[in-house]
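User: Need the bound-state model for fe (ii) ion:
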Amino acid sequence: MTQKSEIDRRSFLAGAAGLGVAAASGAQNAARATERAAERATERATERATEQVPPPAAAMPARTGFYTPTRFEGDVYDCEVVGKIPADLNGAFVRVGGEWFYPPKFADDAALNSDGYISQFIFRNGKVDYRGRWVRTARFEANREAQRQLYGYYRNPYTDDPKVRDPARPALRTVSNTSPLAFAGKLFALKEDGLPQRIDPHTLESLGSWDFNGQWQSQTFTAHPRIDPVSGEMIAFGYEATGLASDDLFVYTIDPSGAVKREVRLKVPYVSVMHDMAITQKHIVFPFGGYVTSPERLKAGKVHWGWDSTKPSQIGVLPRDGDAQDVRWFRGPERCMMHVFNAYTEGNKVILHAPFYESNFFPFFPPVDGSPWNPAKARAYVRKITLDLASQADTWKEEILFDFPVGDLGRIDSRYQSLPARYGFTGFTDLQRPFDEARSGTSRARVTNCYGRFDFTTGKLSAYFAGNTHSLQECQFIPRAAHAPEGDGYLIGLASNLAEARSELVIADAQRLEEGDIARVILPFRASTQVHGVWVPEHTFRG
Ligand SMILES: [Fe+2]
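Assistant: Bound-state model below.
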């Protein structure tokens, strides 16, 4: 494994552009130089977006090779470990993703339509156990009963087998394959087209859907609710809240005990994927753009989403204590806005850090104008977006902070969610690193070989390299202790060992990523692919 010293890409860019950051004297000059360096990074990223390079890996990879479904449930006690598990790392790393139990009804269906699978690595006194189970949704059980795939295209019930077709109740066909949530003493598996599925946190047995004792009125629940670390409240939403392709957005504030405190019902500018959200101490932020649907499209038997490059990107800003008339919708250029790092409010401004794509990321949601999917624009960059609430303008200021593409499954130290967080963490492909194509049997362009710690303040990148036959899934930051400074802790995540056809959980010191692993947990098989994970500290669930 090679190691690489810390890179200051923004300084490098500033130097290359002749801006002389180091020589600049006075705060004003430095600020101006930083701004111009960010502008240059934006220009370079735009140039790169037009270069011809292989496509990035999709959020959930193909059903072939390393990612062929394994279809089993299992437990591994006292897993093999290389290195030493830190003694202060006690809790569970819970992961949710998708795997096809039965193959899809249509070969060109979205990978996002595969069956939910939940797993966890349980850390206790330096030892690790693994457990993996299917999320037994109503749909999973119906398929098992029929012994075949009954369900058609992604979020299109009109394409389902007549035995289960029910367009009036689309939430019943959720696969619950996107993210885990630990909240109010309960564990859930989430997907944005249905209600949360309750999961036993110890056995991972499925316990049915959850509507917050009837207080949750939306038919859907986001896969990315946000928990305020200051108040302990959860902010969550459901879009297409009143049925297929509906323009209703319901927004909820839920107290730490799980009781709904507040509901706001909004209309969206146009119906689109609303996958993630951000919160600040004062505002709720809803980014989306590009994807479109309609009742006619669904009745025509198409996959739920198409891409319309003429549609603006949108960011909604709703005061945490506001009502429907208080939302403000900002508009921007063509963007695919899936995930965010974090946001915070500073005076009259909302600052949002997010790894948004230039354009459509998903090849299985094709352009509505019939043009081919463009992989060169399916690239995400670390962006800083400033929304000025004092301005009359309906758009925002955007800067690209790092000039190379990154994975869009970004994380922060969650104790800083809604506050001015300095660090973001995400995977990326470093083409300078070695890659053993002969043993890995895949193209290096599809391999996420590094985790990065992105310093939003200084522009510095620190990088962890997983090895020359490994590809990384979403990472997770775990603080070393409750009151440790921001970013002091561990960075963990699952690596696919492409040469050995097995999965390995890597554990690194988040402040010393260049030094490589502290430890690796070795599974003797290919674990189900993760979309999102969460760290659940020990004693979160009693009993
Ligand atoms: Fe997500």
